[in-house]
Amino acid sequence: MAYGEELILDLHECNVDTFNRNSLEAYFKGICKEIDMQRCELFFWDDLETPEDEKQTEDHTIGTTAVQFILTSNITIHALDKLKKVFVNIFSCKPFDASRARHFTQEWFGGKVVSSTIVRRL
Fold it and tell me: Which CATH architecture has domain 4-47+60-121?
């Protein structure tokens, strides 16, 4: 019997207008509704309140990371502004429709899915 499932998505050429806290919070609300997950706490890591001399400067580190805890695990996003890429992990011990989650995520961020992997945890 499987313990849970994780959907790992890499999207490129995304709409960077969706890479802000308001849009990401709305995404989490939408994806949780789409795959029937109960939202818990939401946390952001970004440079919004960081002094200029301490901000990230590498293209692969400039952006926002967010973790939406759900009752059965979490959804994590890394949105990289300069690269126009989004990396999403949806992990839950409650079954969910990975195809619906992938479609919703691609529609939200635009761009194209360059990698989509499902990992079943045993």
Answer: 4-Layer Sandwich (3.60)
